[in-house]
Design a protein that fits this description.
The chain has a single domain, classed as Rossmann fold, CATH 3.40.50. By secondary structure, the protein is an alpha/beta fold. It contains four helices and five strands. The chain is 40% helix and 19% strand. The chain has a five-stranded parallel sheet, with helices on both faces. Bound molecules: adenosine-5'-triphosphate and magnesium ion (MG). The site of magnesium ion has 6 residues, from loops.
Length: 149
């Protein structure tokens, strides 16, 4: 178990292009500014599973990489446009894989003191429920997790 600093020195926010995630990023930016914490803004793209199904052929590796990169770029560009990051030391990180696992592992490996996520995201889950990424990260992450409505 790593040491968690409080007030936080390193904050991680996960974004998926949803309004909730943008609000989470705005909260994270405010907290980072107030505490002089550095901020990591991460988006994880899950490779589309259907492409490996019985129908059709998978795209070439380059076509797939290009598509995922452009999806991530859109999400990261939007957060820089929509969130006030003035005076915040931040970095944008893009990953490919399972979002909950990657966010949790990043938290463990990079001395993250606080994870901030939207309570829901871009999925079509019932609005009364906490999203599956938020739910799984709050169970797995070694640091406190804050969910923004
Ligand atoms: N791919 C992702 N990369 C980074 N952060 C993410 C990702 N997906 C979700 N998050 C974070 O988790 C929050 C909750 O989203 P989550 O995916 O858990 O809910 P949902 O999309 O409503 O439901 P579900 O995906 O389970 O159908 C988002 O607001 C965002 O902060
Ligand atoms: Mg989701």
């Amino acid at each position: 178990m790593t040491t968690t600093h409080w007030p936080p020195q390193h904050i991680l926010v996960g974004i998926d292009g949803s309004d909730q995630a943008t609000r989470a990023a705005a909260t994270a930016a405010d907290m980072a500014r107030t505490n002089g914490a550095r901020l990591t803004i991460m988006t994880v793209v899950r490779p589309p599973e259907g492409w490996w199904g019985i129908v059709g052929t998978p795209p070439t590796a380059t076509a797939m990489a290009r598509m995922l990169e452009s999806a991530q770029r859109d999400v990261l560009d939007a957060v820089e446009a929509d969130v006030d990051l003035t005076d915040v030391v931040y970095e944008l990180v893009e990953e490919i894989g399972d979002p909950a696992a990657i966010l949790s592992n990043y938290t463990l490996d990079n001395d993250v003191d606080l994870v901030i996520l939207g309570r829901q995201g871009a999925g079509l889950l019932e609005r009364i429920m906490i999203g599956s990424v938020a739910n799984r990260v709050s169970h797995k992450a070694p640091s406190p997790v804050m969910l923004v409505p």
